[in-house]
Write a structure and sequence with these properties.
By secondary structure, the protein is an alpha+beta fold. The chain is 45% helix and 18% strand. The mean pLDDT is 81.
């Protein structure tokens, strides 16, 4: 399919958080932005009158819109930062400098310091973040400082230097903010217990710390110190909303390529995420047209080679959903959990959204193509002699054995044709006999179509197993339609498809679009039948109650129901309200009945 127009690209954007990228006619990146809702944010560029001339010029230059879907608004903010720093788009000005979001570092030292930093070094230290708000960082560090006494000096506290008395305690020790490890007043083991607790807080496991803050807030409130209580409440709010992990930035993961694939009968969609020093710097989805029945393994292997060559990737490691052979120079990993698996899930999420957008674009540009593809696939999957452009599905409803009814729903070109739906009240069957009921409604339906010379369906679907299918076949035999219309039965339990004179059922792939259309037909028939059944049951119940009143005939009941709508309103009506509808004599009878 050729590149969709800008209007179509806008129509098919998802209502999800993420980052959008604008490209010009030469495929050069113009602008990177973030959004809580991609569709709303991007569409606003093309619907508003912009005050700034620079924005108007930008909008005129946009030819292509690309996007990366992420899980949260925070991830979108961090990813935007990565991409702007990597590509330096012309119309981005805020994040082009060398500043970055803050991290909290637990320094790799004998007595580790804990501090904020904007630079990440590969020195074995632990880094938590990045954080989109410096306020959150300060709150966390204040929390840690309030709970644990840590050193702030940058001395090399080796044991031999402490033993030699090279250091003296500073003012922080005398103020009670440090236990003095520099003079040996605190052991390394005791200090590392505190660091272990701090590590849990930074991972987001700070339930005990929150409880302590809440106790402090209550103490201030009880002492009428409301300003202090409010300050602590603000810290609690920030901590409760704090997100400990980010999918798009992870310092533990270095340069790596992430690939995932989703596919259907015709196409494979391979998404590529490129990470540089733990940050996502590129996302690209490749659409591959299948020529034969290629497996996902074959498609993914071909796509990885193509994409890595196109983007000149030299990463020595790739993450993929299943093993593929990329030669001895590349390490292939298949993550099952943790941060690496989250990256793989993010890649798959973007592949799925890309596929959905392509489907939407096809429906807009060529509405018939989607239907043609499904019809051709159904013909193959169901072993039919012609495409099932007209399908009818039957379902019986006789809840608790009362008011047996049946429903026939009609799909044309894979879509519901509601004007052709039909309800059937069972006339010749006494009691709850699904087989006999099915035989009756199928016979009545196609006898009428033949008499009125209406077009017959290419496929009939019976909601039920072998029994219901056999009953329907009897009616087709009576009408001399056996072999002229394809007919199958679908059993609910295992989604088995039964064919006439074939004891072995057909099982379709659970992801098959053919099965999804059949399930949609079956569910729609069930819904339509239940709706009619309930209406009949309700109508029967209402009519029966009014018929119990002596002297109130059928016409009076119709007049009452037309005017009052419900039996409850009739029972609560006054003499003056009833009289204009059915006359004084009948009004008295109704009032006397409901008084009893």
């Amino acid at each position: 399919m050729s590149k969709p127009t800008l209007e179509i690209q806008l129509q098919t954007l998802p209502h999800q958080p993420g980052v959008y990228q604008y490209f010009d006619a030469n495929d050069k990146i113009l602008y990177v932005g973030k959004a809580k809702d991609l569709k709303k944010r991007v569409s606003s560029y093309f619907t508003k009158n912009h005050d700034y001339g620079k924005t108007r010029v930008l909008v005129k230059k946009i030819v292509t819109i690309k996007h990366i879907v992420v899980e949260t608004e925070t991830d979108a903010l961090l990813l935007e930062n990565n991409l702007i720093k990597t590509y330096q788009p012309r119309y981005n000005v805020l994040l082009k400098d060398d500043k970055s979001y803050p991290w909290i570092c637990i320094k790799k030292e004998r007595f580790p310091r804990v501090f904020s930093t904007r630079r990440v070094f590969k020195d074995g230290s632990e880094y938590f973040g990045p954080y989109t708000s410096m306020k959150t960082v300060k709150t966390l560090l204040d929390l840690i400082k309030g709970l644990y006494l840590l050193r702030t000096c940058n001395y090399d506290l080796a044991q031999d230097k402490i033993d030699a008395g090279k250091f003296k305690v500073c003012l922080e020790y005398h103020l009670g903010n440090c236990k003095g490890p520099c003079e040996g007043y605190q052991s390394a083991e005791d200090y590392h217990q505190n660091i272990a607790a701090i590590r849990e807080i930074l991972k987001g496991n700070f339930k005990d710390s929150l409880s302590q803050f809440k106790n402090q807030m209550r103490e201030h409130a009880d002492a009428m110190e409301f300003e202090d209580a409010q300050r602590i409440k603000e810290k609690i709010d920030i901590l409760e909303n704090y997100q400990a992990k980010s999918t798009v930035v992870n310092p533990k993961i270095s340069n790596v390529d992430v690939f995932s694939i989703v596919s259907d009968e015709e196409y494979g969609y391979v998404n590529f995420l490129q990470l540089s020093y733990g940050s996502i710097i590129r996302s690209h989805t490749l659409e591959i047209k299948k020529k034969l029945d290629e497996t996902d393994e074959v498609l993914l292997q071909l796509a990885i080679t193509e994409i890595r060559q196109r983007f000149h990737s030299t990463s020595k490691e790739v993450y993929v959903p299943f093993k593929v052979d990329l030669g001895e120079d590349v390490k292939v990993s298949t993550p099952k959990l943790g941060d690496k698996k989250r990256l793989l899930d993010l890649s798959e999420r973007n592949a799925k959204y890309y596929r959905m957008e392509r489907f939407k674009q096809v429906k807009i540009i060529d509405p018939d193509r989607h239907a043609n593809r499904i019809m051709a696939q159904m013909k193959i999957d169901l072993r039919l002699s012609e495409e099932p452009r007209h399908i009818e599905c039957f379902d019986n409803s006789n809840i608790q054995g009362t008011n047996p009814v049946a429903a026939c729903v009609v799909f044309k070109d894979g879509k519901p044709s509601k004007k052709d739906y039909r309800h059937f009240n069972i006339k010749t069957v006494v009691g709850a006999d699904d087989f006999a009921s099915m035989e009756e409604v199928v016979y009545r339906r196609y006898k009428r179509l033949l008499e009125e010379e209406q077009p017959l369906p290419q496929l009939i679907i019976i909601d039920g197993g072998k029994g219901q299918l056999s009953s329907a076949l009897k009616s087709l035999d009576l009408l001399n339609l056996r072999g002229k219309i394809a007919i199958i039965g679908i059993a609910k339990r295992l989604e088995e498809l039964f064919y006439p004179d074939d004891p072995i059922p057909l099982y379709l792939d659970k992801k098959s679009e053919t099965l999804k259309v059949i399930q949609q037909l079956r569910n729609e028939a069930h819904r339509f039948g239940i709706e009619h059944h309930r209406n009949r049951r309700s109508k029967g119940a209402l009519t029966t109650e009014l018929e119990l009143i002596s002297g109130i005939g059928e016409q009076s009941i119709v007049d009452l129901m037309t005017h009052f709508k419900t039996v409850k309103r009739i029972s609560n009506a006054t003499f003056d309200e009833l009289t204009p509808v059915i006359g004084a004599s009948r009004a008295k009878k109704i009032l006397e009945y409901y008084k009893k």
